[in-house]
Fold each of these.
Amino acid sequence: MLQQPWFHQVNTYLFLGVLLVTVAASAYYVSYFVGQQNHRRDWARRLLLGSLVLQSLYIVSRYFLIGNTPVTTYHETVVFFAWATTAAYFSFRWRYTVRNFGTFVSFLIVLLLIAAAFAPRQVIPLEPPLRSWWLPVHAGFSLIAYGFLGLAFCGGLMYLLQERELKSRRLGYFYSRLPSLDALDQLNSHCLAIGFVFLCLGMVSGSFWSKQAWGTYFRWNPKEVCSLIIWLVYLVQIHLRFTAGWRGRRAAFMVVVGFVVVILTLWRVTT
Amino acid sequence: MGNIPTGRTITLLGVNHKTTPVEIRECLALRGGYEEALTDLKAIAGEVEHYLLSTCNRVELLFVSNGDALLEERLAGFLFGDAILPEDRQRYSYRYVGAEAVNHLFQVASSLDSLVVGEAQILGQIKEAYRHAAAHQCTGPLLNKLLHKSFSVAKRVRSETGIGSAAVSISSAAVGLAKKIFGRLEEKQVLLIGAGEMAELAAEHLIGQGIGGVMVANRTVERAVELAGRFHGRACSLDDLITQLREVDIVISSTGAAGLILREEEVRPLMRSRRNRPLFFIDIAVPRDLDPALNDIDNVFLYDIDDLSQVVEGNRAEREKEAVTARQIIDEETHKFCRWQEGLAVTPTIAALRRKADDICRRELARTLPKLELNEGDRQRIERLAQSIASKMLYDPLQFLKSPSCRQGDTAKIDMVRTVFGLENNGVSDDDDTSVDPA
């Protein structure tokens, strides 16, 4: 543990850096969205990649500060969530591009980081029974799942915006800027599928952790019940999509609702 | 090039999407194609230069006459037939004469008068109409010049203004929408219901984007088979419509049916068996073929012709700016063409005057030169002297003829020149070269 004041200061400045760079990336993405000039998007990408690096450094520094994986306080969880979303975005972008997706995702990341900025940042020592290598595994899986579900949420919002313009038959601001409905729908199903796999892994590892810490797989405490609800919400979506052919507006709406549930539980449970 | 008769005016009669409802325009559209119409027209117009354009948005007849009201009446009778009664012509059709006709033609060719300003199809349609007219020897020197000019004006407008850059015709607007719904169009299937001209156009556009396959459903199966053959697609009867809807992705409907041919309650149950794959309906029929309530079904998108026009309207403001520049070009070119045409009124007189002077020189030289014993150099000098005197004598009369008042066809002044120089005996309509620009 590095508890020296100078390290606290380094830690604080790192977070400030993360915040500034991400806001700058998002601002560039928004200006690209408005003006559609490619060089702005290139800068936005570079800045967001810089933000990912800084976020990683911040999480590592936080690890050295508190001595265990920094996913126990609200601040740490939300930062890790933002990191997972950013990383998921880049892993996704590496495979294929979706027009103006970055604008929405960077906006979500900025919102998460701002939420983290307002949360208290003091170091709270972890209760001894919870100290286990299951902690990083469980939290890692769950937050990566949330990252992908966050991407699906952005895709769902974009779908709903684009669909509304197409249905209303008055094509406006978003029509030319957003990708096709098909691309957005595929993005949703892709992110949902990956997110759900990680969600399952998170659930399983969580119950093993619970077994190790408390001697039982499921304790029916609010946090666990909420996780179960989230898991069921997404299970239903996956089921409907892959068996009943649910897609389009309803599917996008469900993805958005699912993510709102995720955010609400995260906020209720960790504060 | 033959001689262009002077004192002829260019007249344009026509209807377009702005003046005439679609039901009436439909009746005017050439059923038998250009061949038949031009043969009939030729019987009426005879030697008068004429040219006929027919597209889904307009029917226009251009002809050159010397103000023969009877001929115009007969041509109008042919053009409008029973579809527009003589008393309604004022309301539905337009008639432009002279510079206005030229200006209108240039506007049409430059796509300023199109339903979708800036779309490029119209120039091709004009060229095709001209090809037919030329093949039937309907056009003469004046219309040939005018139509070729209209092509170059259109080209100039396109290259000097941004009017074509955002050009979205109805069918390319439909393609744009299809792309926003389906992403890639490669594996998508199109169903054409009814085999109208617009449907064909839209289908061509989609095929240009690499669509997967085409299916044609029509009341008369022969026509369906014929059209399907053109697109390497399949034909089916209208009774199979619902079955086909399970397979296709884009439906373009353009039948002449009086009522709806596809209702919401017929399509809704299909979505389940389609596993909610999106369906894009384009209704370009008037009256409409498709139930407006189709749009309320999830994953179904319905656009009719008005919606598509509205989509296209979105770009209008930008293009309106370019249209102003385009109109300036057109006005300028109209002015140039009219000056050229005005010049034609004095050209024969100028030519006759020059010819008369040349004749006199030649005659007098032929009489005098043999009597003199000159070497070659001196002989040439004498010839040049004679020509120089003649042209100096002609300088002022020619300037007079080229003055604006004569150019604009003041026949009294031209006649005076002709009388003073005794040109009436020398035939006016000899085969002089009228392509010489009198300016």
Note: The beta strands of chain B are 9-16, 50-54, 58-65, 94-97, 189-193, 213-218, 234-237, 250-253, 279-283, 300-304.
Amino acid sequence: MKFLLILFSAILPLLHPLQLNGQTLLNGKVTDEKGNPVVGANIYIKDSYDGTSSDVNGEYRLLTTETGDHLLVISYIGYETYEGSIRLEGASHTINIAMKEIYNELNSVTITAGAFEASDERRITILRPLDIVTTAGAAGDIYGALQTLPGTQQVGDQTGLFVRGGDASETKTFIDGIAVADPYFTGVPDIPSRGRFSPFLFKGTFFSTGGYSALYGDAMSSALILESQDLPAQSTTSIGLMSVGGSIGHSHRWSKSSLGAYVSYINLLPYINLVKQRVDWTKAPESFNGSMIFHRQISKNGLLKAFFSYSPSTSAINYADVNDTASVILYNVHNRNLFSNASYKDIFAGKWTLFAAMAYSSNDDDIVINSADSVFSKHSLIQGRITVSRPAGKLSAVRFGGEWQHAAYTDQFANVLYQHNYGQHVDYTALYAETDLFFSPKVVARLGGRMEYATQIGKANFAPRTSIAYKTGLYNQFSFAFGQFYQQPGHFFTYDNASVNYSRADHYLLNFQNITDKQTFRVEAYYKKYSRLITTIPDTASNGAGYAQGIDVFWRDKETIRHADYWISYSFLDSRRQYMDYPIETTPTFAAKHTLSLVYKQTIPSLNVTVGATYVFATGRPYVNPNNSPEDFLSERTPNYNNLSLNASWLTAIFQNFTVIAFSVNNVLGFDNIYDYRYPADGSAAGRLAVKSPAIRSFFIGVFMSIGEDRGDE
Amino acid sequence: MKSTILLLCMFISVAANSQDNKKYADAMHRNLQMLDTAMTVTSFQLLANSFERIGNAEKDKWLPFYYASYCFARVSYLTDDKSKLDGMLDKAQLLIDKADTLQPSSSEVYAVKSMIASARIMVDPASRGMQFGPQAAMMLEKAIQLDPENPRPYLLKGTAAYYTPPAYGGGKEKAAALLEKSISKFESFRPADALSPDWGAARARQMLEMCKE
């Protein structure tokens, strides 16, 4: 009997193909949750060859010879696989399935209030890293490109990003979680300086114009969060020749690590001799930069990055003396800047992500005015940060950690009459925690908080940060954000004064965006309330206050015009504040009511050429007229600002090496923009000087060659 | 008696086994015949599904996963909606990784891996070229290193050169040289068995014609 059973069960599978009448017909329709047909879904009996695909109507017909209890599987890319048990016994079955879309970070709601993200990651973002280097007028400067986004102001005579009624010090730059104390070159007054760091160093740029995460602090208005490149794919040598200097670099890739070394030398002397300048350079800007980047893959997910950069620079300029037309004021600056950081990121026990970073930076400025007054500043900063995060459920996550900074400042002011030395050490500690809670793939809330303590103030603060985003359609969503943002007073205000407090801004943002990979529409309304701003009259104190409110609109379109990409930014800004030496609450010098940017890029594939144009318009900004009564302080406006910049880049090969030849001209139409007025001591309007850019137009030409590792081409 | 039962059982299982093999070979043959003439998204999608079903049922054979991945890669080249490419290519990658585990160090597997990396570039050429271009090239070098006589890596190299402007180290001349090399290798290439990869000879000749236009 037992033998018969064994025999029977062994023979049974052989009999299957012969059971012509034992076929079962399965049919039905595969749809998504909304009832739209799913075309090309794979429908099959598990562990058998029997299966089929759904047709253009989502319908399927599956004839199977299998019998008994089986699993029916229906799978399609991007949807949860359906598995259902089924008894096959000759009768036909109709099985209709509504498949559930798989939600992941790519198609779920994201926090977008305040955020402009440029990233190589798969998520559709507003900008790509390459957009930064190909924007006309930006001249390859990260900060220049960000000034074409809504929320930023055109302040042509000062360095830095002025965001939504905030001054430049209220925007902080972070590289791999580390605050950058001096992100810009030290320049001379009235001429804005570029950012120190090349956009090519970064794979991700996250520019927040407000309401940003609790991970970042000590910035009242805005945070620029840069993420450096990972291990490079291959060894490369790069050579750059520019109208203002040259650079050479090599990065070598081993199987698990890479080391890169770069040097560059910039000297504007030949350029200044060629292009007529409206200012009198006595020493053309000259700078050197040496940097090294090291990467090492420690484990499957563990990556160590280390970056070191050192750059000295000098420049000197003769300013017209507004009080004495016969004489000039010589301003001479010598800067040495060092920036180094190391970071490590790894995943432990499958879900805990650890991020740790350490950094040291120092900045020395030696400024001599008319060989008589001198300022010697030496600032250094040691800092560390640890963040731990883990997923909490399918999409939700928690993050927490802390950062610590130790800053040492010395400033020496001297002239023939006196010498004054200041020195100060500041320890700043912050703890933060944040969670992204997904109530569904369409609704997310980010709840976070940040506690800070700074020794020069001797007080702690707590800053709650919240955002809510609701996905209203496949491509669109609403976001709301509220947050409190504190900032330490500039170190200069705390040398003699222990009573100043953190400045504070409360942000309220409401954002709508519709974003596809071809088109982006984004509109954001905001209200910011400033309190405890630093005031310097009658004495230094935290008595200032103010507000900023406005609307930012952004439209980007890569679809309508063939091979073209353009974006339009518009900002309306209404801001008033009492701070510094302002006698009343009024619109600050760095706030223009209307700002409009148009960026256009056209690719000509047959020639490998990209041409671009950027036009910027801004209404006039307030300036100080000393003849006005205190009630009329900053009541007058400079003329409107206009600028049209053009650029072109040509991709070609020189000795078979990938080469980019780039050309750009800034202010091609020669608009004679006036940024500010400077009045003589007697207040005469006739004697006032208009502050303008150092040259009416500026030109740039550069050749950048990349020599890849020999790939053994035949 | 016992030994008779044992013998009988052995005979039956061998018979069952060869029956299974025949079923596998038949199913694969049917699909490979269709693959020869496949031109559209729909036909590649149907074939990808079918190969994947065979792979899932067989579990220890690398060829069904290899062909399923190859079909998804071909689908991605024919798809206009770029937002769908990454999902498709993730699937192709998953399948080729399965094939790689079952048949390690296969030149054919690396050739398909290179096709997947190349397809990733199409999602956003400007920003992805730097990342996936070298990766695709590396996979092809590996494929050639694993089997210098495999004509397909040279076909893929030639195709890449054809679509790459001379400025980036491509061009028709370069493509033609690689395609000629591929064609000469196709002439001497004999697949390991009837089911092993044997695609590309016609495509190589067609591409060479395009180079000479």
Note: Chain B has a mean pLDDT of 89.
Amino acid sequence: MAATAPPHTPAPAPLPEGRGPSGPSRRSRAAGPGRSSKAVVNTLLAVVTVYTLMPLSWLLVNATKDNGDLFASPGFEPADFNLLTNLTGLFTYQDGIFARWLANSLLYSVAGALASTFISLLAGYAFHTYDWWGKEKLYGLVLLGILVPHTVISLPMYLMASEVGLVNSYWSVLIPGLVNPFGVYLARVFAESYVPGETLEAARIDGASELRTFRSVALPMLSPAFVTVFLFSFTGSWNNFFLPLVMLNDSTLYPVGLGLFNWNATLPQEPQFYSFVITGSLVSIVPLAIAFVALQRYWRSGLTAGAVK
Amino acid sequence: MTTRLGRGQRTTPVLFVAPFFILFLATLVAPIGYSLWMSLFREQATSGLGFGGTETVFVGADNYLRALGDASFHRGFLHIALYCLIYIPVMVGGALALALLVDSAMAKAKRFFQLAYFLPHAVPGLIAAIIWGFLYTPGLSPVIDLLRTLGVEWDFLGPDGVVLSMANAAAWQWIGYNMVIFYAALQAVPKETLEAARIDGAGELRTALAVKLPMIRSSVVLTMLFTAVGAIQLFNEPEVLRSRSSAISQDWSPVMYIYQAAFTEHDYGLAAAASLLLALLGAALSFVITKFGNRWKEA
């Protein structure tokens, strides 16, 4: 850190126009950081960029190699271009089980997150809009729920699910994913800033029922919140590994992560899976990476709501 | 704003929160209660030879005592203690440093840097562990090749390196996420405050440490809280690296110990007791962090 502002900062150089978050107000000040410390900061940031992007670019390059070239050619040098061969192999292996895993992941994540987002918004909206006995105590319980270690409740959940016959079924992964206490928290924070009381009052005076007021007045106003909460739920279930690992035996029900994990574990004995695991990892990342870049704005608003409050 | 409802409408809030709380009870509260119950019993063979069926016997605190007396459970806690000691300062400190650097007037291309740091978070933790597993494998890894040309022989999967390797995989995935949180909090620091610091002659570094950092401390405390609760549940990284490293046993971390007790040994009582002990550690850590956090806020 000390390197960012060396003691020998040279004679004050004027700040470039409009740089920095505060723009014009900072421009008025003549003294600014020297050119050398600026270079140090940007070099440092660039080095970290190399670190964060290196594994992804390695994956990209090596998804184009066949099993032989993976070990024979240097890590970052492209060898023969075999991406299409790898993809065909990956998607046709065992009658296309990989595509099945991707579809399962989509089902768990999209259907699960849609339902979970709706449930969270409904609860968050109610916490914001209505007053009832014990409300804040109940809300405290929700906040506590955010901190409960998930790996700890997975085992009893497995035993409970096996008693009601849900183990090794889609439901065993879908149902626990519906509960998202952080989503309720986000929904309440968003409702506070997006849904003005006067609008709801006006809808009521017009004779709309509470449910109708929620559906036709509040829900449209909460659509940015919907996207943000959905995004958090979606990545939460897309990333969930422990629960499916505990609940599922049948490989046709696996989400893509669990399937790749099993292939990865057999690599020391069956090295022919190397290109499958590498190409499969890349394929499983691409949809999420695109969603991340496209929906950056919603991510940021969710993280800000979590950070500032 | 809150609404006082007429007589007929009192049920509305109940209807609105009911779906969430029914599921909350079923998938969060009930499992914790069930764990507590399970932790007091043990399945025992009815005949000493292991023939015949099993019966469930009330054993009181015995499962807890067995877990607490088990050397491999102790080792699990030592492992995660070492992991937390490396991971938490590196990840939280790194995210803070990056956020302050990007926020400083000296950084160019602020949006690009944020995106580049955030992108690894689009990679699921499991896949991140698999990718890093490849980057730790001799013959496959360009990192090992690079270190070798620099004259460094480093075994990422050996007994000395393996904790560091796990911490690195996790930090890679979370550093950008938390950096964005801190950066968002920094954006809320009033411009007047920064201007005042500037007029008082504070340089970039002083402003960052003495003005900006104290103003985002609630974000820092919250991040510490979530990081610590996540870190003690360490499972993905060691479980993935286990197939490549002889330094990682099947019960290397507490969650792995619990998983093994439940699904390999079918000793559910022990697994439940160990789970609750781990949850207790989580609660204690949360309490300590919040307590210290509040003191820092008042200071």
Note: The two ends of chain A are 28 Å apart (CA to CA).
Amino acid sequence: MKKNNALLALSAAAACLPALQAKAQQIAQDFEIGIRHYNYEEAALDEDKVLNQQLDRYDIEVNQFRLVAPLSDTMQLNVDYQHEKMSGASPWYTFQLPGEEPKQVMSGASIEDTRKDYAATLKVALDRDVLSLGAARSTEDDYDSTSFSVGYAKESEDRLTTWSVSADVSNDDIYPVDTETFRTRPDTEQSKHSNSYLVSYARIMNKHWLMKIAAGYSRKSGYLSDPYKQVFVTGSLIGDSRPQKRISRTLAMQNRLFFDEYDAALHLDYRFYDDDWGIQSNTVDLAWYQNLDAGFQIVPSIRLYEQSEAFFYESFHTEQRADGNYSTDYRLSEYGAVTYGLKITKAFENWALMLSGEKYYSGGSTFLADAESENPALLDFTLISVGVDFTF
Amino acid sequence: MGSPCALSFYCESEQQFDQAKGACVEEMARLEAKYSRYQPDSLISKINNAAGTEQLFEIDTETWILMQYATIAHRESDGLFDITSGVLRQIWDFKNPTVPSQEDINRTLDKIGFDKLPMEQQAFRLPVTGMELDFGGIVKEYAADVLANFIGEVGIRHGLVDLAGDIAAAGPHPDGRPWEIGIRHPAIPGEPVAKIALHSGGLASSGDYARCFVLDDKKYSHILNPITGWPVEGLAGVSVWAEQCIVAGTLATIAMLKGEEEGKKWIAETGAPYVTIDQHFRVESQFKG
């Protein structure tokens, strides 16, 4: 029925009126508490991919707690705490018998570990400027990490665009365990250092379309290997050994499209990643946020991922490398992955309940990947999560 | 604003209500001081008094954006929505019903025309003596939007601003029920022709039942066409919903100015939800729910 554009033209003109622009709610109006419980379960490996009959992999139970506390009209403090309990076996090294595909050797005994993450962010919002300062700490039995971040965002006068920049530094220390038994593990404390920077530009294109473009750069240096992984090469077992430096760049685009007639929103995101280890990856995320009656929202989603392999990675190393870098870690292999997700939330007066599930499948030739030799340790996992949010 | 206004808020505390009410009253006073034609020292009065002279005015951002808005409204209505058309009321005096001569009308038309204005924010003037700006057709709706926005900022999520029929909702009732708005019947006071459920956004109405006169069996509406200078034989009333009350008001005004049949057709084509009442009190409604 719509034949003239008066409504659209006038709405666009009215949207510029300063007093009609919703004061960007940079600072939360209420206290919010969020609690989440996640159960992450990696599927057992196929028997024909494993050499040592250890098929079970990681299970992780995660509890998350978040507090958002408005301190004043211009200040807000976010505090996050996360507790993870991990148990299971993890891939050690690959081994290839003549005429067969490489097989995985798993860590024999079950590994138990607990990780605790603490993070706090202080946000200061002055009209169209938002400054955020953050600090985070993460500890495991054999690992701790400290990081600091600073971010600044500015909205344009018409509040249709937002520019933001952020920088992040972190320092991780790792003290490998059981170095007496496993001689490939470094027996001294190892450190790595990381700096990352992100610039983003978000724009409200029109009433139904919000777009964000972000570019990131990150530089890691120090001990970037996995002390628990090994590589079997020319008859001997050596430690996973990676370059001492890794520079990566990302370019991402996010779109939010709103459909009045369905009372729904489509999230369509794309991310390109490229690093100097030779890994390039493409990620596409699609999610449909459907609002339903009685405060229900249902979100089906799909994520497609693929990456190329690192230059020093092999599913099984048959030759010595001049640079001394070796890894058979499946995370450095060429692979693709598909994640199917479904989330349901129900909003009540001042609290909300959420339930979500994800199924992840990865493989050497999933999505766009086309690996010559699929890494035997590529995993599938299931992630189930329940949560509640309160505002008061 | 010279008309009854009602603010309905659900508040958590007396203090919050006082804060919201205070902010609203203050904001209304600010807009009144700036845009009222009846306040001699308002910006609009100053500009109007200097019409035809060389005196230049610098227009503040808010007013300038309202002018830009009026430009779009003028364009989208093919010149029917014109904030310089207020001078027609000098010859169409609805308190003393007479029909002006065509000469009078033509003389007045010379002082009308939004496209005559030099759109210079730093150096604005009305180029013709006797020309007048009148934000009356915009500012009350704008004020409703502003207030609804304001109370949201003090944390009120359930409230309704009603400035003499220009309505803006700041969220439904706390249990999620919409506000029930009755659309007046042109001839039977207190008898709504339609009930509209308002969850959010703005609702504005325009009609000729409030002020018109009948002379020699002919009805003269107070809705005046700025191009012909004559009253419009249009709809009896139209109510429109849009995200912003100011937009709803403009659409309703344009629909009235277009005349009965054309107005009905045009408002349907905008895609905005509406209710029209024609001179035979036939109601057409395009409201969902």
Note: Chain A has a mean pLDDT of 91.
